[in-house]
Structure formats: structure tokens, C-alpha cells
Design brief:
The protein contains 17 helices and eleven strands. By secondary structure, it is of the alpha/beta class. It has a single domain, classed as Glycosidases (TIM Barrel, Alpha-Beta Barrel). The strands form two sheets. Strands 1-2-6-7-8-9-10-11 form an eight-stranded parallel barrel, surrounded by four helices. A three-stranded antiparallel sheet has the order 3-5-4. Strand 10, helix 16 and strand 11 form a beta-alpha-beta unit.
């Protein structure tokens, strides 16, 4: 395969090459779509009874209505039980409080398919990456969960991630990296997902004030008590009836609420330091991943992180410029169905906690602050947002997506390759629209998540657009 082709990666999770077969899957992603890279996971699956294992596609905090475009074992949605794809070397985890998943019957019967897929993909000329969680060891303990300023756990999180500052999680990550390269030495790198604090739910946006962060912040020159106090006051302002329609009018203003945000930063100065702390913490976590990859994989192996797009990245802590020192590439997510869902998630909480808010004004303020529409575009009710159905276009126009791409490129400053991450979920024409704007942009390449949402027609569309 020519190395001059613009980068095109597709995430292919194991159930699909288990079910469809390795060669048919690779033929689809290479010959139809023109992929230059694939990413896979390290577990294997089999159909489970109702309630056994996990329901796929993921339910995204009970809000998802997704169906696979490519059926698994004859179904577009099903329960799958799983097992690790290999027996981990427990010696590697001797210094980690977290241990790898126990092998089971699927490890023995299906596990070798992961290695065969990687070998076949490399033989076909593809780059191959392992996708894994950045802070998601098996059996995540309560002591390693992120906390709100008052010490509570965030309610009903959508992403079950751990504290970026947890020494136990970092010890597991290092052992896991070592195990990955020992088992799958052919892979080109690792793609950790969520090396930041996800903000799908409003509570998630106020992570993390746990003990691990208190220790880390003090060691790195941040005033943790001041941050916690001011962020707690800001949390109460949003959740305790302090938000009013006059505020919303400012947040919905043509300047995208910039003046109102500056006023809030003056009112709650510790919030600014907290955002700086999160960015430094995320960068430090990525430094840890980078060091482990280089140590156990070698200098040619890559750290290729996933990330939220601006302005969400300011809340999550992902600093594209600083992260560029450690990441060979960063894939910011154009997950437009999640952005729509966040308007609903955040809006429902704010309406419930602040009686008297005008719903239309609240929606316009959220859409404005999240930069999801221009002018009079966009809906005026929470019902206009939420999770789009499989046959429903995502309600995010092109211009905001293009702006976010250019913001990332500017923020990264050329320190790392930027591969926009497009989700395959949604109707064909809407998927074409979202992929085309990436193809027309100056990014270095694209990742598409994931093969299960790519019908034959979508695979052909990728090949047509990306060529």
C-alpha cells in the first residue's frame, strides 16, 4: 500500500471479524473504503442471554437508540458476553493494585483471532493500533473514581472513567502497555480513549476533586483549596437556583457568551486555575502513557490519543498543544450525536434546578456556548436535541464542525498529526456530509468509528470521498 495516501483509519472491534471473518472484513476496509490503518480491541465475544454481558451497541446512559448497520449473529443489537483475548502475564502486574481480566472459555476458543487479525492486517499493508481506555482498569475501585468539589461521586455518569491522578491506575496502565506489546508486538501503537475528564453529563464536567488530585495539584503548584472552593460555588450557582433568564440572554448573545464567561471567571477565579490544572493533569497522564509505550514498545511505537473537540476540551482538560509533545497523533471526536445529547442532558438538569428558566432561551444559550449552530439555526426546545435515531440526520450543521477542526489545528500548532474522528452512526447521506467536510479540511487524516456502523454503501462512500 502506498505510504503517500492520506491517512484513513477504521476502528474494527473483534465481534465483527469473529462473525464476518478476517479476510472479508479486511477486503471491505481496504478495497471498498481505502483504509490505511485499523484499530482493534483485545477482547473477544459471543452472543449472550438477555442480561448477560453488555448490550451492544452501547446504550450511552440509557439515551442511545443506535443499531448496527452490520448485523452480528443476525442481529443489529444484542447482548454479548466477553473474555480477554489472551492470558496476561501476571508478573507484569506485580506492582499494580489492579489485575488484568481473568481468562475464560472465550479466551481459549476465540482469543487467538485477535493475533490473526493483527497479522493479516499488517500483511495487507495496514498500520494497526490497539484501542483501550486511558483510565479504565478492570474493576475500577471507588477510591479511584473522580469526585465533585463536595466529595460526592458525580451522578449517573455516561463514561465510567477513573481519576487521571490515581497512582494505582497509572501503575496498571504501565503494566497493561507492557503486556500489549509482549502479546502483540506487531502493532504500531496504542490509542487510549478519554485521557481527560468526559463531560457528557453536567456533573461529569465538574470532575475531579478527589484525594489523588489534591495530592497531584499540590505537588505541581496548584492551589487546590481555592479551586475546590470556587468551583463549588460555581456548581451551586448552576444547580441551586442562581441561574436566571438574564444570564441566559448573555450566554445566548452573538458573541457566544464570551463577555458573560469572562464575568464568571472574575466572579469565580479559582475556576480558571482548575481548568489549567485539568489541562496539566491530562498532559501528565499522556506523558505517562508515552513513557510506557517507548519503554516497552520501542521508539517507533506511537501514542495516538482520542479527544473531545473544543470548546468541550477546555472542560475535559485536553490541551492539544501540550499533548502534542507526547502524541504522534490526536483524534478529536466529531461525535455529533453526542453533542446533541449533551444539550438535552445539561438542559434537563439546569431546568430542574433553576425554576423559571425559559426553555427556548436555555437551549439557545447551550447551543451557543457549545458552538453547535449559527444565528437562528438549531432548535429551541430540548426535544429538538437528544440522541438522533438511526435514520435521523444529526442536528449539527457543517460550519460549527469546520470551526472546531480549525480550532484544534490552531491549538496543536503543528506539534502532532490531527486525525479527525468521525462516527459512522447515522443515515448514509448524513454520514457522507459529515465525512466530506473532513475530507475538504486541512486535517492530516481521519479515523472512522466504527466498522459496525458502516454498511456496504457507507464503505463505498468512504472510498469515493477519501480518494
Amino acid at each position: 500500500m502506498s505510504t503517500s495516501k492520506r491517512f484513513l483509519g477504521i476502528t474494527v472491534l473483534s465481534p465483527f471479524f469473529q462473525y464476518e471473518g478476517i479476510e472479508p472484513v479486511l477486503a471491505n476496509v481496504i478495497e471498498r473504503a481505502g483504509a490505511t490503518a485499523v484499530a482493534c480491541n483485545t477482547s473477544v465475544t459471543a452472543p449472550g442471554a438477555e442480561g448477560e454481558g453488555s448490550y451492544q451497541p452501547p446504550i450511552d446512559a440509557g439515551a442511545s437508540v443506535r443499531l448496527f448497520d452490520r448485523p452480528l449473529w443476525g442481529k443489529q443489537a444484542l447482548w454479548l458476553r466477553s473474555g480477554p483475548g489472551h492470558r496476561a502475564n501476571l508478573d507484569y502486574f506485580a506492582d499494580s493494585p489492579y489485575q488484568p481480566r481473568e481468562p475464560n472459555d472465550l479466551t481459549e476458543s476465540e482469543g487467538p483471532v485477535i493475533g490473526r487479525f493483527i497479522a493479516a492486517a499488517k500483511q495487507a499493508g495496514l498500520q494497526v493500533y490497539i484501542q483501550t481506555g486511558a483510565t479504565q482498569p478492570p474493576g475500577l475501585r471507588e477510591e479511584d473514581l473522580p469526585r465533585l468539589p463536595d466529595g460526592r461521586l458525580p451522578e449517573a455518569r455516561m463514561a465510567h472513567t477513573g481519576s487521571l491522578a490515581s497512582p494505582a491506575i497509572r501503575a496498571y496502565n504501565r503494566a497493561w502497555v507492557r503486556d500489549i506489546f509482549a502479546q502483540y508486538p506487531q502493532v504500531d501503537g496504542i490509542r487510549p480513549d478519554w485521557p481527560e475528564y468526559p463531560c457528557y453529563k453536567l456533573d461529569e464536567a465538574f470532575q475531579d476533586f478527589g484525594d489523588h488530585v489534591a495530592v497531584w495539584a499540590a505537588a505541581h503548584g496548584f492551589d487546590f483549596p481555592r479551586m475546590r472552593e470556587d468551583v463549588a460555588r460555581f456548581y451551586r450557582y448552576l444547580h441551586g437556583g442562581g441561574l436566571n433568564n438574564a444570564d441566559l440572554a448573555q450566554f445566548a448573545s452573538p458573541d457566544r457568551g464570551k463577555f458573560a464567561l469572562l464575568q464568571l471567571f472574575n466572579r469565580f477565579p479559582g475556576v480558571v486555575e482548575w481548568l489549567r490544572c485539568k489541562a496539566a493533569l491530562s498532559t501528565d497522564l499522556l506523558r505517562d502513557w508515552h513513557q510506557a509505550i517507548r519503554h516497552f514498545g520501542g521508539p517507533e511505537k506511537e501514542l495516538a490519543a482520542n479527544a473531545f473537540m473544543p470548546p468541550f476540551s477546555h472542560l475535559t482538560g485536553l490541551d492539544f498543544h501540550a499533548a502534542g509533545a507526547f502524541c504522534a497523533s490526536i483524534a478529536p471526536k466529531l461525535y455529533t450525536m453526542h453533542w446533541s445529547l449533551m444539550v438535552q442532558f445539561w438542559g434537563e438538569v439546569l431546568l430542574a434546578r433553576n425554576p423559571g428558566l425559559d426553555e427556548a432561551l436555555l437551549v439557545r444559550a447551550l447551543v451557543n456556548l457549545m458552538d453547535l449552530a449559527d444565528g437562528e439555526e438549531g432548535g429551541t426546545r430540548l426535544a429538538h436535541y437528544g440522541y438522533p435515531a438511526p435514520d435521523e440526520p444529526h442536528p449539527i450543521p457543517n460550519a460549527p464542525q469546520v470551526r472546531k477542526i480549525h480550532q484544534v489545528l490552531h491549538a496543536a500548532g503543528g506539534r502532532t498529526r490531527i486525525y479527525a474522528l468521525v462516527h459512522g452512526y447515522g443515515p448514509l447521506e448524513d454520514f457522507r456530509r459529515r465525512l466530506q467536510l473532513v475530507a475538504d479540511s486541512p486535517v492530516d487524516g481521519v479515523w472512522i468509528n466504527r466498522y459496525g456502523y458502516l454498511s456496504d454503501a457507507k464503505l463505498d462512500a468512504i472510498g469515493e470521498i477519501w480518494s
